UniProtKB/TrEMBL annotation, chains A, B:
CDD domains: ASKHA_NBD_PanK-II_Pank4 (cd24123). GO terms for molecular function: ATP binding; pantothenate kinase activity. It comes from the Eukaryota. This is Pantothenate kinase.
Length: 392, 392
């Protein structure tokens, strides 16, 4: 097929709850023609293209599974393949796979699905996916502030160089100097997996969404040690306000305190701040070292969560004194999967043909943008294919 | 008094267990003449000079209290003052105080002790104390490696510039360009208080020493997600070994796992690595940004603990590719208190007169230096005063 696509729109119809939707019910008018998967340490992300019969259109679909339940992900893809084969018998599909799990689970995917699994480099896919989203999808990139939580950015004339901070279980930091040249310059093991792991032990929360929800009701000052707790006032000589966090969780370690007095909500807020602040600080220091003034934050850690984006933005703004910009993406969690998708021979060739549909502009203009989370959490992206030929 | 001192030696006689030794029993031949205190968020550090009657000698004594039990610290100082007054009636002592608690507890100290409390700036004291220790106390500064855990360093001809990373409840990072000029360039809230707080909740450990002990028996691979756990192998293209930690605590968040299966020892090791690695990385990035190639690590977090020093050293060496040196101190936790002590008018004037005694050289040469912890954990420093006159 040639996915020469001239229109893309973002649908926010039904939300499929992560890991729960096992059935795939494509409308009769659609069929699946291309699939990619990005298998990380905690989550496996699937992107697939479903073509609308009789039209040039179709959509990119985005789905997440827990890596621990990789068999659910394989079963999901098996059904996609089944649908596809039913529609076009004899046409053999290829699956593009990236992330560590593309290696760890290679045999299992190949043996269960009986199709060709083509592995693509993880960092390459992240950048390919990001470049595609930045360049071709309008209303994809935005800055966050409390007063303007979703301020969309025009693609700048000089896209390069920039930095990508991809926050999954762990964090990778990449410097990107052109569409095809990049380098992993740093990273930290203090990432999403750290927050999820600590909070699942400390709060009993069962899902990351529960944790984020709890953090919204929490007050970190009940567990964090602030400058004011140590000084009684600001430490103004060196510019530390009394409200500055001096020590994350620093109020907890006291011998004669009943540990049960610390609320899960407060702990959730504190650790979310801790991890986000720390990533923001390390991102800033690396951006400074490499002279980069645009930082894209990607990965499933963010999930359009306002406190997370606010903390990352605040950290970058604080440390860089406003000279470096923190940028977010509506498809933040799918950079690698989208990049792997673009590696499908024909998609790649025509990737520059994705453009905005008018309907998207209007739809977004009418959206209550303060509700950033739900605006981000769409799971499909409508595209119109110029050439509907599904072979080649 | 004039503390013009020409000999200093380090005694490793009796170890007083932190916070437990409430009585002070100076030998009859000694009396206290100068006191300083550095009150941080978690620990209050006391330094006092006890003079040996009939000689020119005396010693610097080092004691720690939990800030939460600040009254124990005040009581301890009250007894020191009592001793001193008994020995020299009518002679009024001044206490030099620094750290946030010098402000927060100022009234309580003044009212309970009935003496003049002179407050000194915390950062200034840290640097004054560090410069004194670097310059005047031989066998104070060392580098750490597994094969040579305590490799002492000669004071370099060019001491400045250098960086100090002071790790208490939180972390302060200072750039020092001369004996009197310095700047707090960075810091992180992810410090000792974070580790102590998290481990007291997660492992039930009651003291930091218990936590460190547990960490020595732990295997972080049971809770950390390694590159090999995600990839099955190295990710050699970008230089990540399969043993590299991809996500601290990244193995914990799994829905169907009994959380009790995670051993306190493994969690302790993981979080000690996490905090130490992170501080090492942020220290490196700041050193790089400011062109500094010598980093002193101070603060009560380190406590001469081999895993901590090894992790900090490893992180600095890894990130800087060997170009930056991590330096440790035998009196790491007392920089601020020593600095405040040096602010006593006469001490400061004569601070350069502390020198090594021959006996110290011999004593250290005979020490089993592999036992770094006990070598570091001395609580006194013998000094010989040239001028025994106690007035001035």
């Amino acid at each position: 097929m040639t996915m020469n696509v001239v229109g893309a729109s973002i649908c926010d119809e039904e939300l499929i709850v992560q890991g729960e939707a096992r059935d795939i019910q494509l409308p009769n008018t659609e069929h699946v023609s291309q699939i990619s998967v990005d298998i990380g340490g905690s989550l496996a992300k699937v992107v697939y293209f479903s073509r609308r019969a009789g039209t040039k259109g179709g959509r990119l679909n985005f789905r997440k599974f827990e890596t621990e339940k990789i068999d659910d992900c394989i079963e999901f893809i098996r059904r996609l393949l089944e649908e596809s084969r039913a529609h076009r018998p004899g046409h053999e599909l290829v699956i593009k796979a990236t992330g560590g799990g593309a290696h760890l689970y290679y045999d299992r995917f190949r043996d269960t699905l009986g199709v060709n699994i083509e592995r693509e480099d993880e960092m390459d896919c992240l950048i390919t996916g990001l470049n595609f989203l930045i360049t071709e999808i309008p209303f994809e990139v935005f800055t966050y502030s409390e007063t303007d939580p979703m301020c969309f950015e025009e693609t700048p004339a000089d896209k390069f160089p920039y930095m990508l901070v991809n926050i999954g279980s762990g964090v990778s930091i990449l410097k990107v100097t052109s569409a095809t040249t990049f380098e992993r310059i740093s990273g930290t093991s203090l990432g999403g997996g750290t927050l999820w792991g600590l909070l699942s032990l400390l709060t009993g929360a069962k899902t990351f969404d529960e944790m984020l929800e709890a953090s919204q009701e929490g007050d970190n000052r009940n567990v964090d040690m602030l400058v004011g707790d140590i000084y009684g006032t600001d430490y103004s000589k060196i510019g530390l306000k009394s409200t500055t966090i001096a020590s994350s969780m620093g109020k907890v370690f006291k011998k004669n305190v009943d540990k049960r007095q610390f609320r899960p909500q407060d702990i959730s807020r504190s650790l979310l701040y801790m991890v986000s602040n720390n990533i923001g600080q390390i991102a800033y220091l690396n951006a400074q070292a490499h002279g980069l003034d645009r930082i894209y934050f990607g990965g499933c850690f963010i999930r359009g969560h306002p406190i997370t984006m606010n903390t990352l933005s605040y950290a970058i703004n604080f440390w860089s004194k406003g000279s470096i910009k923190a940028l977010f993406l509506r498809h933040e969690g799918y950079l690698g999967a989208v990049g792997a998708f673009m590696k499908h021979r024909s998609s790649r060739r025509n990737s520059r043909s994705f453009t905005l549909t008018e309907s998207l502009t209007q739809k977004l203009a009418a959206t209550e943008l303060t509700d950033v989370e739900s605006t981000i959490a769409q799971d499909t992206l409508d595209v119109d294919a110029v050439d509907a030929a599904d072979s080649d």
